[in-house]
Amino acid sequence: MLYGQKIEAAALAERAGSLSQFGGVRLAALEDGAARGVRVLDFKTGSGLRFSVLVDRAMDISVLSHKGRAIGWQSPTGVRNPTLDDHEGEDGLGWTRSFSGFLCTCGLDHILGPEEVPAETYNYPRKSKVRHGLHGRIGATPTKLTGYGEEWQDDRCVLWAEGVVLQATVFGEVMHLHRRIEADLGGDDIRLTDRVINAGFTRTPHMMMYHINLGYPLIDNGARYVAPVRSVIWASHEEAGAGGAKGRISRMPAASLRVYRAGLGA
């Protein structure tokens, strides 16, 4: 579906010399300020949905808009080259110096606040403790981009990008985040598929969180969040207390999300 009508691939080709006239995926690089050098994949579906994937920040989604209306929240830090990040700075709160955009991935072995935990999974006797900064390291890690582009599946055109993000240390965790992002030409949906692999030889802690940040005008006075959430479980590396869980967040039932505002529904 494109511009209100169903159109086949051949008919679409007859109407333009390039698919990029309607939509596609374009690789570019930011070249100014703290964002200098960050690779970006710009997605345009032709329905009015546009979003930017930060290749050098774990393939997180930064700018997101629909028909010119902003959806993804942007902080004063803006996009920041990960070489400027200090994960353990400011007593573990250095993450806030680069926190911005619609999707910020947290993990892969920690998603909580700054914390020091036993280094039981490290094969290094001199290391007895591990210091974690806020929300973990993965969000400031560049991606090995394995592919991107437009792919026709019969008369359905899929815009896609894939990459692998590596979180590793000597004597400790070796984890690979395989991420694929898709959107259909003419579509309004973003599909994100993640697979985390323990590529090391020992058991290792794994925690992951999708930090979704919505902004104005989608969120404003009168907005309501509607979701069939039956339970929320607090998580910590400490022993489980009342309503708590040790080192994990228990799986919750799938929940749909709807945000409403007068004159704007999504």
Structure description:
The chain has 266 residues and is mainly beta. The chain has 2 domains: 9-219, Distorted Sandwich (Beta-galactosidase, Chain A, domain 5); 225-266, no CATH class. It is 4% helix and 39% strand. The chain has helices at residues 9-14, 89-92; strands at residues 24-29, 39-44, 49-54, 60-66, 69-70, 103-108, 115-118, 129-132, 144-153, 156-168, 174-184, 191-198, 207-212, 224-226, 234-236, 244-246, 258-261, 264-265. It has a 5-stranded antiparallel β-sheet, with no helix packed on it. The chain has a 4-stranded antiparallel β-sheet with strand order 9-10-11-12, with no helix packed on it. The longest helix has 6 residues, at 9-14. It is globular and about 65 Å long. The two termini are 18 Å apart. The model is unreliable at 240-266 (pLDDT under 50).
Sequence-ordered SSE layout with sheet pairings:
Layout: H1 9-14, E1 24-29, E2 39-44, E3 49-54, E4 60-66, E5 69-70, H2 89-92, E6 103-108, E7 115-118, E8 129-132, E9 144-153, E10 156-168, E11 174-184, E12 191-198, E13 207-212, E14 224-226, E15 234-236, E16 244-246, E17 258-261, E18 264-265
Parallel strand pairs: 15-16
Antiparallel strand pairs: 1-2, 2-3, 3-4, 4-5, 6-13, 7-8, 9-10, 10-11, 11-12, 14-17, 17-18
